[in-house]
Amino acid sequence: MKISEIIDILEQYAPTILADEGDRPKVGLQMGNRHKECTGVVTCLDATLDVLKKAVENGCNMVVSHHPMIYYPLQKIDEDEVNGEAIAYAFRNDITIYSAHTNFDKCEVGTNASLVKMLDGKVVDTFECCFVAEVEPIAVGNLAKKVASALSDKSVKVIGDVDREVSKIAVCSGGGGGAFSYLNYANRNADVYISGDMPHHMYLEALGRDFPVIEFSHYASEIMAEDVFKSIIGDKVKVIKANQPCPFRTLEEI
Amino acid sequence: MKISEIIDILEQYAPTILADEGDRPKVGLQMGNRHKECTGVVTCLDATLDVLKKAVENGCNMVVSHHPMIYYPLQKIDEDEVNGEAIAYAFRNDITIYSAHTNFDKCEVGTNASLVKMLDGKVVDTFECCFVAEVEPIAVGNLAKKVASALSDKSVKVIGDVDREVSKIAVCSGGGGGAFSYLNYANRNADVYISGDMPHHMYLEALGRDFPVIEFSHYASEIMAEDVFKSIIGDKVKVIKANQPCPFRTLEEI
Amino acid sequence: MKISEIIDILEQYAPTILADEGDRPKVGLQMGNRHKECTGVVTCLDATLDVLKKAVENGCNMVVSHHPMIYYPLQKIDEDEVNGEAIAYAFRNDITIYSAHTNFDKCEVGTNASLVKMLDGKVVDTFECCFVAEVEPIAVGNLAKKVASALSDKSVKVIGDVDREVSKIAVCSGGGGGAFSYLNYANRNADVYISGDMPHHMYLEALGRDFPVIEFSHYASEIMAEDVFKSIIGDKVKVIKANQPCPFRTLEEI
Amino acid sequence: MKISEIIDILEQYAPTILADEGDRPKVGLQMGNRHKECTGVVTCLDATLDVLKKAVENGCNMVVSHHPMIYYPLQKIDEDEVNGEAIAYAFRNDITIYSAHTNFDKCEVGTNASLVKMLDGKVVDTFECCFVAEVEPIAVGNLAKKVASALSDKSVKVIGDVDREVSKIAVCSGGGGGAFSYLNYANRNADVYISGDMPHHMYLEALGRDFPVIEFSHYASEIMAEDVFKSIIGDKVKVIKANQPCPFRTLEEI
Amino acid sequence: MKISEIIDILEQYAPTILADEGDRPKVGLQMGNRHKECTGVVTCLDATLDVLKKAVENGCNMVVSHHPMIYYPLQKIDEDEVNGEAIAYAFRNDITIYSAHTNFDKCEVGTNASLVKMLDGKVVDTFECCFVAEVEPIAVGNLAKKVASALSDKSVKVIGDVDREVSKIAVCSGGGGGAFSYLNYANRNADVYISGDMPHHMYLEALGRDFPVIEFSHYASEIMAEDVFKSIIGDKVKVIKANQPCPFRTLEEI
Amino acid sequence: MKISEIIDILEQYAPTILADEGDRPKVGLQMGNRHKECTGVVTCLDATLDVLKKAVENGCNMVVSHHPMIYYPLQKIDEDEVNGEAIAYAFRNDITIYSAHTNFDKCEVGTNASLVKMLDGKVVDTFECCFVAEVEPIAVGNLAKKVASALSDKSVKVIGDVDREVSKIAVCSGGGGGAFSYLNYANRNADVYISGDMPHHMYLEALGRDFPVIEFSHYASEIMAEDVFKSIIGDKVKVIKANQPCPFRTLEEI
Lengths: 254, 254, 254, 254, 254, 254
Known about the structure:
homohexamer, 254 residues, alpha/beta, five-stranded mixed sheet, 10 helices, 13 strands, 22% strand
């Protein structure tokens, strides 16, 4: 099967038309050659050098990542830099990299849909990359523990009243913690907001509104993409999950 | 003593000329009246409504905060919004709010200088709000535990090799984790970078460079401002620390 | 009756959707608390400190102004500054300020509609904040005297031929004298343009086109807002007009 | 004498280097041919069609104006438009137009220096196009009458306390009434601000600051340019003043 | 016949609504007076001084050019500059200049339609100023010779494989060689791209794509506008072609 | 010898500090790995796929080009596109690409200095990438022939008077024909301007000024870079010239 055929299958699930406007040029084939025969796929969150090496070790010439590898436009490709080293390795080893980013966040089998499912919720509304879902009434503190357990995320934090019972949750996978518009939307449409990469001033805004927030790690909220990509294309081609580790360790893990 | 005199003393330590250009209009008297007699000061990280109430309860009509209260320019002041509620309360209770932000980050008694001291270091270089210091050789993991202990911060994370011995640290209080230029500077001039509010893609950049990073919480790295402000003006006027709590709770604190 | 109910009534007459795009964030509740019981309203052109004081003296906790009080976004609220002093006074005295600006200019009972009525005209066309109306044929000089008399405005000026008979007038309340697009529209659709705040180069443009212009004072053309606001809400709540004086004096009034 | 030689003389008095940056491309030879023999000059405030006709009637082939004729960059020159008609007339009649604008405002014999002199003041400071001068103590109302009389300006207005005695005046010829930075500078450095083209919201700012302002007409404050230009070049070439009339009439002049 | 009537006829063929958005203000009457009686027209590519002189010598008071005379907005009209000298000459000699630019490129009798016709093609598609047409199969080298011969253009260049047979051509009159979007469109929809003003990096792009390009001179590809304008209005008024020469000479023409 | 050492030698001749500001990020190591041992260098104008293949065929792992390979920042590297195919080939074959662009244009042994030498001139002034030189008096037509002969450029064009004798020439290698500021500088400081990539409206500007211009091909004016790079590093490492052909053919070369 050709790489372009694998892409066609992925895009049936996550059409590129769903991607945010600014994300559009980075979504799709990021690097490489769509016409080659696919010898196997490694699925991952980020196409890091370690992931590319795993592909080579396993005889796979395609990597499907959630995050685009070239995030900022390139003016040079110096192997002394992180991106340059990975790009060089990819070309030298004939690996083609494909990314499904905000189109995957929003699609029916994507990260947000997965999160809602892991929390036993039912989607009732969406706003860009933010999904609102209904769950059985639960205290915020217990919901935080459920999130931590479902995502195996030891770094979960809670902002606000842990005892308040909530039944409508707003979820945004990845780094939706910095988007004011998402917090606003969540506040108007849900009882609690669950997202990652949240800076200090957002904690204050949530506290000031008396609106509970649960923060997970960006990584933990999207690593299931490895599984989802595998489930989509696993019956067409050899697929290996990168089993990419969390990029940080908490105090107790040191 | 007049409020303006308190301000003069604070600005001897943290001259407003040190503030970043974009920060300039927000640094200094943020709200209120510099000509009133000061009846007492509450020092804090953020001039939240809770802090303002503590000022009133303690007969203080001045709040000295590290973060500017009006962070984004205002077009209306609606009491239904977080900022509006606090501004209204401040005016109704005759509280004047003064902020020392990036000028305080950089000054000799400021947040970064304090962090270096808490880690038993000696400043050898600075770059905007980032300080480089020399410390006794220590493994990154142990340094992370030292940071956690010094700041009473249970949320400390480590990115990269915990066993590597380091002796030159780059520290940026608050949310320096999102500034690529700081990571670059730290990477070129130190063995490890220590800062807060770090989004996922910075973890990857640090891992890709094999450059260790320790992430603390924005709050924990700056809450000592309460003490520093108190030490500067405590002998001139009644000063009460807000003892502002951390805005989030970790899993074990729920 | 709650302040929010007074707002609802005003917005039935001047829906915020009518406001210019750039004006949108400043129109509506400008400052204060919509949930309080309304103890009385002072209507005015500008919510100056004098107006706020009148509200307090008369036991009114709401001010309805035509011009938004926060015209330029605020980065600090220093009581040493004009805006800061008024904002502080408003909050200390629990006054809520509501503004209907360009939405009121354009609505059926608004400033432009009022001007046309005062000049015995009949609206036949509109363009943004500019209204075209038909009047009985009249010489430009006499029309200027009629404007001066209707608005009690001693500062009225005439540009161009005073003897020319006109029957189609274009009117723009406030400071429409600086908008080239309004002059153009008036020139194509009317015999004379009537507006305020006109800079020198607009006089030349009008003279060059041989298109007569009558300039009134911004104040005189909008002070009737005090009356209109009163007529709208006067039967629901105590309403006092500010009777705000003209901000300038002509030579003969010194 | 060649037109270029007349220009050289004018620029000894008002060097183009003094002009504001944005004004630079419009200052100097605005239209025509610097190499022709000068047959006479008409001096004026604005190079309107009437002024150009006066030049032709008097055998003059040069017009020296204070305001640049091409104020907004041109993309077409249609004789149906005000500017186009004048440009066409100028070329058809071989008239060269020269403008000294902000460089003339600021120079030693320019509009601001002239205004100070007419008010019996002595310049003590300058800021861009704003001059501060000391005068004999005088009440604001009387100063306004003196301005009106010196400039023959019936439209003079006063904002604020007419009885306050002032001795330090800030003057800005033309349309300095709309520049917030000038009001600020005047407020910090003088007792009263005198300028033209002042919109309504500046009246409020001045009233709020309790800072007196006198508003003259833009025209009246700069028409003396006709005389000054004449005095500079009158002994080298035939010079006729346009005696350009005020573009508006007040109520009593109708 | 009035000049405005000539304009009406031209705009029936090349409606200004067809012009590119940025081109809109420069298309139409560029300079002069539409109300005069037309004494004759000179048609040309560029309204240079030589062309204007030819108009005068032949008793014509109108010039119809393809390129707008005022290409960059004017801030002064100095006769020492190229544009200023021509504008002055035009007004002194009562010449009105009319331009049909991108509206003429795209219209049914315009430059692109003419080019297609000269190459015996049939238009099948259009994209902005680029026309795709079908021709009898021909080798690229022979097509280049045909272009050179049809346009009498000795400077024609070929990029890529001269022997490849092509039957679908994309043509863009004038300077379409610098527009990446045109090359892209041509590459997707035709076998060869034919245009002018092509910089070096476009040659490389074409070679890299193995997509043949033929470059003609901007002048040669549009000089037929002289004829087309004449054919449109020649029966209404005296029309003389400028017979404007090519602005450059090739080596063999020196 | 390491690639980084070759770079050091090149930058002694063409320091990157000389590069234009916008060109800075693209100058220097464009792609690859500076730490490898250099097995040979291919010098060229453009690092096209053909040039990269020549490097491989000749056992060279470094390409030194005048033009940067990544001219527009990249957001993806698709092998279906011209740039993507070349980048992939470079990495797969371990080729490192180094570019010296505007720094090389301006340096003492660079393209402009070379052009002046080929025309037997002596540099007397410089302005950005434009050099002024004195030559023996020569007619413009003959100078054009000399340029054509020196550069073996059959596409040379002449604009203006071929018989005029000139002795001061302004030269700008590459595509300086589109830069208005260069034409201005040349016109004020030299008798003739010599550059490439000249669009039609520049011809008109030159003709209107009666200022002669000679246009060469961008390629022909810079291909000598192959030789210069070789002469700089040829004694340190194996160096092969790409002998890159001209990207276009003239009519007589078809």
